[in-house]
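Subject: mismatched residue count in predicted assembly?

I count 864 residues in my input, but I want to confirm that the predicted structure covers every chain. Input:
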Amino acid sequence: MADSQTGTKSAGDSRPMDIPEPKFNWMNQSRQWGTRVTPDKKGLTLDKTNVGIYGEVPQRWGDQGRNPRGAIPVKGALPIGYSVTQKTELWADCAAELYEEAIQRRWAPATDVPWSSIQPLPNDVEVAICQVCTEILQYANIDIEVLTNWQHRMSYGYHEVKQFLATASLDAARRYEAFRKRALINGGGLGLEPTGQANRFLLESRGGWTETVAGLALIRTLFVATVCEYLYKHSYNDAERVVYSFVIQDLARLLTYGVEHLKFSLAHDDERRGSVITMIAIGLGMFARDLRDPVLREALAIVFGGGISGARNEGMSIYYDLIEDFRERHLAMRRWLDLPADAATMPRAFRPRDQN
Amino acid sequence: MTSSKTNGNLPDLDLGWMDQHGPWDTHAEPGKYGFTLADIQIGEYGQVPEESNNQTGRPRGSKPRANSMRLGGYTVRTKSDIWLENASFLYEEALQRQWSSATDVPWESIKPLPDDVEQAQCQMATFLTEVEFVAGDVPARWISSTTPDYFEARQVLLAQVMDESRHMDVFRKRALANGGGLMRATGATAGFVGGIDLSRDFTEMSSRLHISGEGAVLTIFRMGELMAYNDAEKTIYRLCAQDEARHVAFGVMHLRYMSQNEPDRREEIHSYLDEAEGSMLTDAANPAGRLTQTSESLCILLGGGSDKFDEGFRKLVAIRRRQLQEYRKRVISAGFGDRFDNGRSRLNELMAQAAA
Amino acid sequence: MASEFTFPSLDWLQAVREVFNTTDMYRGAGSGRCDCVVGLKIEGAVFIVEFEGFGCTGVRQANEAELENVDFYLDMPYELWKSMLENISANNHAIGEFTLNTLDLGMEQGIAHSKHEDQYRQDLFVRYNQTMQFFFDASHRISTTFEEIVAS
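Triage response: the counts match. Full output below for your records.
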């Protein structure tokens, strides 16, 4: 029975309890009722939820809270302070698909890698592999810091991108873990700290996520993916092959997001073009300085050449093949993005061997 | 280093780096259940410094370069600020227990529900879509501020960001899967003082996020089976509860470490807990709190319809009491149980208010 | 004809453990690494079930005092144990009110307890809930007979 004074009524329970009269004033408030998304052979994927207003991704998301896209926003909430609020600053149409793909292709270094296949290697090879691991896990560390430094600044309206980046940062955590494990399992250890010029420009590109993506995807991710492809071809056991192949898959998703985002951003925001071109030029310059340091180059050459003796010719030759592959892929991506793609403008470290 | 070229255009090798490495002759061995992070905590590689001077982001145990630039800018570089004893274990557990909202939820089991129940489900799903990623955004920000010398703790937080991403996604899917839609947002995680977003210290953030915030949501997820109307919803709540329990475990273990190693900070931590208790039943971030749209939704779901609101309310009160009891025991487990003996805690008062 | 196992008994638990450890469906979503020691209190009988890594590593008969050392123990009236197992047997897995989580929520004091009152360890019941559920769901693959137990 309702109590007109308190708005409550007695529940008649063994334990006396005043039950508030419900208001139900939140009911019948939806911007689009009657939505029914259904799973298909891939399950109920995130992109399937983009129907009607729920799939309308605005050019600008001004809401400074965590209002889910398509919900009725709350008025008067104090702002959280998101700074990446324009679609052109982060969007890629493939983000939802990449998110689901990342989940389906998850792996665990602890149990999915046949670590027992690693057998003692010649000391020079082990030293070189451990150095390469040290470099890649340092790169992974920078990936983690770059991604997590931007995630929380991105508006909620672009949740697909935030969600994809959550998978990308966990991928980076796995890289960090897997390469550390490889370095410590076979009588070696971690090597010399990498030089890290390129790390600076990735961390210090505070101005825009799009510019950061230009460096992260077109330079860092592409380079590590290319290195892993070569390492896969020249691996010494099944454990390494498995690690490299999983990592290549993980990096391919980040690369796809990066390229697709840049494509979208450049197509919709002409003013970005200049800063992206500048960012790539600065990034390549810093990366070239890293490559002038002999450590990674020689370590890779030793791995590719099967030891120091093989490194001088065959190993180093394969290393330069790697650099050329990286350069050609990098330029191909720039062409795809309709950005200047003249090899002659690249730092010497990336030019063809006969021009070097 | 020589830049002279031999063998055509191939440079000679320097190789000086080969003698510069971390502790050598490391033979980490996989355990019975794979090659885990705990298995590589050996020798100096397992030694976590009380204070970290690592400002270059170098991997712990690698050989530092004297000329490396400081680029980390880490604000969390005191072990007790972020550490917990079982981080390695929680991380591995998280990787092993990942799941897919697209394919691991039996979406086809969802059948049309009475309109009031569907609206309540959708309102709860809207709320959970809104609040779950506060626990993604905020840990991400702290990850990028934490020295990699404490990478084990960072790895757990990276897994948490991924978990929260999946939670945000699975509740969005639920809202759109059964003829409903998203409803009204609550602004529960807006940028107010004392909110999770604005914490200035990691432990402060963790006590708000992991102990009070996620602890309360964990109870809701567990209760999810009582308000689930099909196997899909049961699966969602059960799997989310497992994830959430890991996050709560992080908070409990971190507070315990802090309690044991930083007695000078105990009073400060008690202040955070005072604050948490003060808003435990009124905070909009607790769906079992007093915010009409979430508490009434819960009553409908728990009771079985708007006409069984009273029955639902009694169950809601049971949830509130359970939240408070579990909070109490977690705080005791974390080493701050003295507040319940010395009269500082408001928990008894809150227990009495739970039925209001 | 398949052997029959009497619940509760060590033989029954060992048979369930065998099914749990060797059936792929119990490695699906929600499963994963699980390290904990669980007590089962079935009226007067006490058993310890140990999980380590990805499987159940041991079951043994125990006494009340040993419940001090488990992470948590499950305790409910014998009739409820029986109803839960019959539900599992009828549906190949627990449904409705007979999942462990729902049983825990449905009782005033729950079914998951600890002597040590350490919520961190007691939360393992939630952290590994699906694994616990899979373990008992595995009982549908064995033939169970029930023996009434005189409460101690």
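The two ends of chain A are 90 Å apart (CA to CA). Marking this ticket as 'not a bug'.
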